[in-house]
C-alpha cells in the first residue's frame, strides 16, 4: 500500500502531523510533497525515525517530494517522535532559548551574557536538550563564542533543536551551523518529556 500527501502551503508542524497520521495504516511507501526546506528535513527525519528509508527529490524551484520506503520492519505510529528521549523520564533538563541575548537594557551586554551562559552549561547536571525559537535561532547561525559553545555542547551529546519556521522567517535556513532543524510538534513533545525547563 502506498500513500501520497500534498503538504504544500502548510505551516509547521502540519506536514509532520499529516505524515504521522498516514503511518497509522503502516503503508509500504509514503510520498509527501512540501514547499520549504524545514518541512523537507522534518518529514524526512520523522519517516526515518518511524522505520522508513527516505529519499528527497527536488521537483521544482521551491518544491520537494520526500519518499519513504519501509525498511523491513513493522512501522507503528511513533508515539514519541523524539528518538533520543529513551524510556526514562528522569533527570531531563531542557533549556529554551527564545532570544540571542539575555535580559534587556543592552543587546551588547546581553549577547556577552548569552555566550557566557552557553559556555557554562556543561556544568549543569542532566542537560538533555536545547531548543531555539524566534530570535534564539540566530545563535545557531551567527559565528562567535555562542555558536562555538553550542557546537561543543552538541559534540558532547546534548541534543539541539532549531525551529525551522523561525530560520525561514529570519532567512537563516542556509546559515544554520549546529543542531537539527525542527518543528513545533518536536518542540511540544520535548517540553512534555523534560523534567525541568530553563529559560534564561
Description:
The chain has 200 residues and is an alpha/beta fold. It folds into two domains: 2-70, TusA-like domain (Translation Initiation Factor IF3, 2-Layer Sandwich), CATH 3.30.110.40; 84-198, DsrEFH-like (Hypothetical Protein Ychn, Chain: A, 3-Layer(aba) Sandwich), CATH 3.40.1260. Helix content is 32%, strand content 25%. It has helices spanning 14-22, 37-49, 107-120, 145-155, 164-169, 184-193; strands at 2-6, 29-34, 52-60, 63-70, 93-97, 127-132, 159-163, 180-182, 196-198. The strands form two sheets. It has a five-stranded parallel sheet. It has a four-stranded mixed sheet with strand order 1-2-4-3, covered by helices on one side. A hairpin with a 2-residue loop joins β3 and β4 (63-70). α1 (14-22) runs parallel beside α2 and α3 (107-120) runs parallel beside α4 (145-155). The longest helix is centred in the middle third of the chain and has 14 residues, at 107-120. The radius of gyration is 18 Å and the shape is elongated. Mean pLDDT is 88; it is low at 73-90.
